[in-house]
Specification:
With about 425 residues, this protein is mainly alpha-helical. It is built from 18 helices and no strands.
Amino acid sequence: MVWGTLALAFLIVFFHRYATAVVADDLTRDLGLSGTQLGLLASMYFYAYAFMQIPSGILADYVGPRRSATAGMLVAAAGSLLFSMANRSSWAYIGRLLVGIGVGAIFICTLKMQAIWFHAREFATIAGLTSVVGNFGGILATTPLALLVDAFGWRPTFRYISLVTLVVALLIWLLVRDRPEEMGFQAPNPASSQPQIPLWQALWCVLRNRHTWPNVIYFLCISGSVTAFSGLWGIPYLTQAYGVDRQIASQIVLMMTLGVALGGPVMGWLSDRMGRIKPILIATSTLYTLIWFYILHLAGGRPPFALNYFLYFVLGFISIGFLLCFNNVKQVNSPAVSGIASGVVNMAGFGGTAILNSYVGHLLERVAPGPHYSLPAFRFAFNLFIVLSLLALLAANLVKEQPRSLQEGAVDSE
């Protein structure tokens, strides 16, 4: 019940994350946005989300997941309502900023709850299941959202989203508890309940640990590029490359999101079964690089249309390997600072996405003026994804795997 409630909140997080891709044309028309401004609007969510990750880790470790997640969803509901009412770009920016601040606490609170309520040997599998539920929200933000927007308009749709977000906030407050002992259960992982160390010492221990940083780089590169594509630029690219409407384009992006959703539990199960993380990260980042190279260069940015459904599904399926970075960063840092360690990694991924959204828009405008960019412009801008995937492959080779028996001492690693 506790996990399911927070997982439902994570579904709402993903819906908010990807929703701007479907309404990109509406926002450009109604608010008079350029490509750079549209990228900045989408990035406001990610800047706020990234900024909140370390504070969210601190809140999860020192305040508790229940209160932190409830407050976050209330702020997100207010932001979504403001966004739906925006009549100029500045109010839309503020609305998306509030949404990002609010939902920024949910994933870290969920990871912290998992570390407390589940055995360590189950962590990667449960994280994968959380990813399934969350990415279902991403699926809802593609074709289903496009149908809602076409039927009711984007403003009423986002008001309904605000109401749903408010309801989930109330469910968290009513159903979630921070520790099993509060509901009469024995803690399955007592290490997660060890005495907390001072705040700034905890943060410094995570940041000075060199084994933290390969996870940061890998997550930034893969999660950032996938989210920039599926969350904003994928639908405009596909409509331009193939001359299809946004509902058809959103179906292809949906396949990427479906791949991410189904890949999560598979990667988690495989990692728990193998007892390894590094080989999975190396294999998936290698394949990720090759597929982008094929799409952009061997196929000239226009693979056979039907093949896109398979290609983007595979891209999503293998990209979710970045989820294992949370398991690894938990291994190489003390359980007492698991929330902060996860927050550092998550901050990198979403900070990277925020920068990528804006930078891809900038690269597009360097080649051709908007709002309808040419295929060569998209190919030029998306080469950035290949560069990032190569950096991720390098980081995967630097990941340090550590037996669980040594996790307690990981806080002193340098």
